[in-house]
Write a structure and sequence with these properties.
- By secondary structure, this protein is mainly α.
- The protein contains 18 helices and six strands.
- The chain has a two-stranded antiparallel sheet.
- Helix 10 runs parallel beside helix 12.
- The longest helix has about 35 residues.
- It is elongated and about 100 Å long.
- The chain starts with 13 loop residues before the first helix and ends with a helix.
- It binds arginine.
């Protein structure tokens, strides 16, 4: 039986009938739908709409549907319009007429709003666990890398040496922010729309706070018009994840670049690479390329979701059915990305020797040299000019600043003395970035300790939501 056929004299166009169904994708929400239906059924019984016997049989029916849903073939239903219709049909098939009472005082508009919130909440908890593991890996690898150094780049040109740990912690910062955004989204979404009815609020005096608490929400939504048409939580979720995807695409890009023969800073783990069907020598960074590529899909889905909600009048409009697939696609894509990235990052090998060699040449000590002159009273702009000329001399003479004889140095910078050279070593250059947030080893140790604390806090939060 359809959920709404009474008013109609004609059958639906068969093509339209098939085309408008959301069951092919919203069957993902069956667990959420059953949980929300159970809460609604108990509220109906408390309001005296269902007898105890009816309630018991509905709850048993819902449980049975939950068991059946574990078998994909049992979700085959070419008539179900959506997951709500599917559950009603199954319930009636299992327990008879009492199943039709379940829809008393509710609307699919509040149901989908509730199911989707539960789905997003569950996905956030899942993603947070994955991000926690990834962060654990990044921090542990940063700790293990000790004082190993590598070049940093601006404009992708060698800039200044940094600790490998500093580089890894830069990504940790991004992922900590992503985790914070998801936590923030979770806080705001955790309100229960049940009791909102189709648009104006339920006509039965349902105990909303009990339904809300049963489903693990913090409270009920405040306004039925808003609650039945609000998809802000979905937007925040996909937007937070599109930023996460963008961060992953940056990490992936560096892994791809640094694994090239020309850089050779990282060795790709075979378990996360593939070969070429044509060129026998190849080991390709497909895992990272796919992660970089998936960001496009996620950013696109976030755009499509925003465009769907834009300009919608209050309250529920069927357009909102179109908000589901971007949410599913983004959640599922990012669960995969987080897991693969975490696996890759724990398996990738760093070639510290190559990194060290690259960090020790290419004039990445030039700014430190200019600061040495500045500390001797030369205005920085002039110091910059003098060291620039010294660099030019080195380029012409195929050497580094440290190889330059002192009298040549003095020809550009008479203020320089023998001490000049002690400011050029890798250790000296690293150590002089001794400001909070800088790459001096003592600062990086401090940053690592702080990262550990934040990680512990994050895990504590996860535990609370488990
Ligand atoms: N499948 C619908 C959706 O996802 C459920 C809500 C339908 N409500 C309605 N008034 N037709 O939006």
């Amino acid at each position: 039986m359809k959920m709404w056929a009474g008013r109609f004299r004609q059958a639906l166009d068969p093509q339209f009938e098939r085309w408008q169904r959301s069951f092919p994708f919203d069957q993902r929400l069956i667990g959420e739908e059953l949980a929300a239906s159970g809460a609604h059924a108990r509220a109906l019984a408390s309001a005296g709409v269902l007898s105890q016997a009816e309630l018991d049989s509905i709850l048993r029916g819902l449980e049975e549907i939950g068991r059946q849903a574990a078998t994909p073939e049992l979700l085959q239903d070419d008539e179900a319009e959506d997951v709500h219709h599917f559950v009603e049909k199954r319930l009636v098939a299992l327990i008879g007429e009492a199943g039709y009472k379940l829809h008393s005082g509710r609307s699919r508009n509040e149901q989908i709003a509730t199911d989707l919130r539960l789905y997003v909440r569950g996905s956030i908890d899942n993603l947070q666990r994955g991000l926690g593991e990834l962060l654990e890996t990044l921090v542990a690898r940063a700790e293990k890398s000790g004082v190993a150094a590598m070049p940093s780049y601006t404009h992708l040109q060698p800039a200044e040496p940094v600790l490998v740990a500093h580089w890894l912690l830069a990504y940790a910062e991004m992922f900590f922010r992503d985790s914070g955004r998801l936590a923030d989204c979770r806080k705001r979404l955790n309100q229960c729309p049940l009791g909102s009815g189709a648009v104006a609020g339920a006509t039965l005096l349902l105990d909303r706070s009990t339904m809300s608490a049963e489903l693990g929400f913090d409270q009920s939504t405040a306004n039925s018009l808003d609650a039945t048409s609000d998809r802000d939580f979905a937007l925040e979720f996909v937007q937070a994840l599109s930023l996460l995807a963008i961060h992953f695409s940056r990490l992936a890009e560096e892994m791809i670049l640094f694994s090239t023969r020309e850089f050779g800073f990282v060795r790709l783990p075979e378990a996360f690479s593939t070969g070429s069907s044509a060129m026998p020598q190849k080991q390709n960074p497909d895992s990272m390329e796919l992660i970089r590529g998936k960001a496009a899909r996620v950013v696109g889905e976030a755009m499509s979701l925003g465009a769907t909600v834009k300009g919608l009048p209050l309250a529920y409009n069927k357009d909102l059915q179109e908000t589901q697939e971007p949410v599913f696609s983004v959640a599922e894509t990012m669960q995969g990305v987080v897991a693969i990235a975490a696996g890759f990052m724990s398996a990738v090998e760093f070639d510290y020797d190559r990194m060290h060699a690259a960090a020790s040449s290419g004039f990445m000590n030039a700014m430190a040299a200019a600061h040495y002159l500045a500390a001797r009273g030369v205005p920085f702009r002039h110091a910059h000019e003098k060291i620039g000329q010294a660099v030019q001399w080195c380029i012409e003479n195929h050497c580094e600043l440290a190889d330059m004889p002192l009298d040549e140095v003095r020809s550009f910078a008479p203020e320089a003395d023998q001490e000049f050279y002690s400011h050029l070593t890798l250790d000296a250059v690293l150590g002089c970035h001794n400001v909070e947030g800088g790459t001096a080893p003592v600062r990086v140790r401090q940053a690592l300790a702080e990262a550990r604390e934040r990680l512990a806090a994050l895990k504590g939060e996860q535990h609370a939501h488990a």
